[in-house]
């Protein structure tokens, strides 16, 4: 018999958090698409940053202000810039591109992380991971199909967004050597508010009351996606929970069809599977290396 009184295993908890992260990410991207470019991407990032800061402050305040001290403030600033520009470029793209197509191309992020690890962080990247990276980019070409389909600006913005997210992830890998995850989230949220406030002087559009639900859903789901992902990685290796991340694509496809009558072609599905498989392989190889297997 199953002991229903026993707590769930660490992997099960991580799996639940990973599924929740996938749902929240799909909801966040869908809500941005729903607003259909009514607000500039930097204004959307600003609203998300403000809510993120309000959510983070009570969580980190329990440990006292002293726990937020860091000796890596310049790197926190760089990480924030990467994250801000990654969000903004993706939001510009998803305002006009199908939701699921944008999410499919974000599976390139682990591949860009591998490139950053080898080129910027000077980590040893083996032949297997480089080969998987090339295969993953071949999957992106299946989706984009240059020469057959026009490669428009939104597609290039999604690719740029994935590269920028990889830069942010690479900064986090360095920061977590000295700073707790909560500290990195706090500084990103705090720094992002004044940085995004500068472009608002030129792009601000006052939301109506009818816009509040979509903005609130976007901001909360974006924060919840990152929080859930951090919780998923707390007790399990990224390679163990990464398969659940693929749920973002079918969820986005369902949302896109139900709300906007968007349909994905078979090439986008095939390319997405190739990219995701390559990303999973890279993540798995990194986990094995970490454990000395």
Describe the structure concisely.
With 293 residues, this protein is mainly alpha-helical.
Write the layout of secondary structure elements.
Blueprint lengths: L9 H26 L5 H21 L11 H22 L4 H8 L2 H11 L7 H18 L8 H23 L5 H23 L8 H23 L3 H8 L2 H13 L5 H25 L3
Question: In words, what does this structure look like?
Answer:
There is one protein chain. With 293 residues, the protein is an all-alpha fold. The protein has one domain. It contains 12 helices and no strands. Helix 5 crosses helix 6 (127-144). The mean pLDDT is 82.
Shape: globular
> What's the pLDDT, averaged over the residues?
82
Please indicate the count of domains.
1
Beta strand count: 0
Class from secondary-structure proportions:
mainly alpha
In percent, how helical is the residue content?
A: over 70%
Strand residues, percent: under 5%
Low-confidence stretches: none
What is the radius of gyration computed over CA atoms, rounded to a whole number of angstroms?
19 Å
Order of SSEs: HHHHHHHHHHHH
